[in-house]
Write a structure and sequence with these properties.
By secondary structure, the chain is an alpha+beta fold. It has nine helices and four strands. Helices cover 53% and strands 8% of the residues. The chain has a four-stranded mixed beta sheet, covered by helices on one side. Helix 3 packs antiparallel against helix 4.
Length: 240
């Protein structure tokens, strides 16, 4: 991979000096794709660097229409590459095709970014417990639901649980998870987790199973007043 990394550095350096080459963005993505296939965790920062560069470049307005299209898709595709491993990238990519006026995360990204990083640390087991205290209507529940949809895609065979103070609340968790996964007109969940499909769902039990039906579903949404003991389990990579 040393040769590929060296090639990546050369192409990226060339693009930074002269972004007007229409071939260079495709070449850069091809090399980055190979690096990510080899070791995604190691080369994830490269995706972030390319994404940040593209975002900055596109905002400058110095490109032709053809160049703008090239860098737009370079930005989109590198964000997709990072999305399974990087929660921030996942949040951005999930809504990539949505009307900007409808987007949840991008307009709130600056405020929610610290919470998104904390949830990343929770998934990566750098922390075991995360407590969040925020005022109402600031996006904490929605961010938590989106986080759970990300966990489900990464670990469809492990059980996770979402609980809350009322059945009405946990019913809302269940419905929004279904929307994130199933509404392909609004969200790109299936684009991130290709080959991961809903195998079973139950509105009565508020459960969703991905890939195959299991004794303990991929996610169970149930209130603290509901029956939890013996009915749910949190798997090795699951989240409560």
């Amino acid at each position: 991979m040393f040769i590929m990394l060296n090639l990546y550095q050369k192409i990226f350096s060339q693009i930074k000096k002269d972004p007007h080459s229409t071939l260079a963005p495709d070449d850069l993505y091809g090399v980055l794709y190979s690096l990510m296939r080899e070791d995604g965790a190691k080369y994830l920062p490269l995706c972030r660097d390319v994404g940040n560069f593209c975002d900055s470049l596109l905002r400058r307005g110095i490109l032709t229409d053809a160049e703008t299209e090239k860098y737009y898709y370079l930005h989109k595709n590198t964000t997709k590459l990072a999305a399974p491993m990087d929660f921030d990238s996942y949040m951005m990519y999930l809504e990539w095709n949505r009307d900007p006026k409808k987007r949840f995360y991008e307009p709130r990204r600056e405020i929610l970014r610290p919470i998104v990083q904390d949830l990343q640390d929770l998934k990566d087991r750098r922390i075991d417990f995360l407590g969040v205290s925020m005022p109402p209507r600031t996006g904490k529940s929605t961010t938590g639901i989106w986080f759970m949809s990300w966990i489900m895609g990464n670990y469809p065979d492990d059980a996770s649980v979402m609980t809350g103070h009322s059945s009405k609340l946990t019913d809302g968790f269940y419905q929004e998870l279904l929307s994130l996964i199933g509404d392909t007109n609004e969200y790109l969940w299936y684009d991130v987790f290709q080959g991961v499909n809903i195998a079973n769902k139950s509105a009565q039990d508020t459960t969703i199973d991905l890939v195959k039906a299991k004794r303990f579903p991929t996610v169970t949404c149930r209130s603290v007043g509901g029956t939890l003991t013996g009915a749910v389990e949190v798997g090795p990579n699951g989240i409560l």
